UniProtKB/TrEMBL annotation:
Keywords: Membrane, Signal, Transmembrane, Transmembrane helix. InterPro entries: CruF-like. It comes from Nitratireductor mangrovi. Residues 1-20 form the signal peptide. The chain crosses the membrane at residues 36-52, 64-88, 108-127, 136-153, 184-208, 220-241, 261-284. It holds the Pfam family Caroten_synth. It comes from the Bacteria. This is Carotenoid biosynthesis protein.
Amino acid sequence: MIPSLSRSTVCMLLALTAWAGNALYAWGTLDGPLKYWSPAIVAGAMIAYLVIHGRQRYSGAQLLGFAVIVFLVGWFFETLSVLTGFPFGNYHYTELMAPFLGHVPVSVMPAYCVMGYASWSMARILLNRMHGEADAVLRFAAPAVAALLMVVWDLSMDPLRATVEQRWVWLDGGPHFGVPMENYFGWALVTWIMFQAFALFIAPGSPAATRLPAREVRRYWLSVPVIYAAFAVEYVLNPLLFEESGRVAMVEGIELPVGDIYAEVAVLAATSMLPLALLGALFVRRAFSAGEGTGHAASLPVRRGR
């Protein structure tokens, strides 16, 4: 078992491993082996991060509840949208995303889960709810902020995975590099439902506070903006590493150079995800710098039991 005092370091290393995996993904060619194998590095690091970081704060039952809520809500609305067009729009997944659970790729639910946990934890930082306060802000404001953080991620992710890589196809197109705007409103709704359900699920009671060195608590929370920014690493590196200058993608019946899409998405990620991650890091620094400077301990609420 990983000692409590070292878990924050392990979490930071896992977050940096996710950065490395996404950098490898950006380095790989569109049809090359790096694009195929590097997601396993990212997924493994982020799932391990969720478990280790999450178990430091939540009980096993609460983490399992988070996963179940995300899987059920995500799968239901993904299936509903594939069949009816609500709430994301009319689309279908391609065989590149196999295997499937019904109409939804199996890999979609873990992606919701790991990025959902990062966004939820980021919301706690931005709302200054790092100390375990079970109040109305955590129950009702945090789900909305976390949902918006998920939408910010999808603004960069969807044009790349759908338009460039053709992992799913938008049947009616849309103004954001072929992605309809209703997709992002749908994301806001569905992810808010996930987070709101989880917030109400964990609301009863408060975790017991464990006194740890301030630097450990600070590193624990600093790993959150690092893991949130992991996918932005790929998006920002794409135009710098892309060498297939003749590659094009169809957007609203028009051929657009893939390099141009990469450049636009890189600017979007660099002006949205990365500043939010930096802001989160600054919030953590402000919250814990005083205790670290004096060598005092800080409280990290920890769920004990199963």
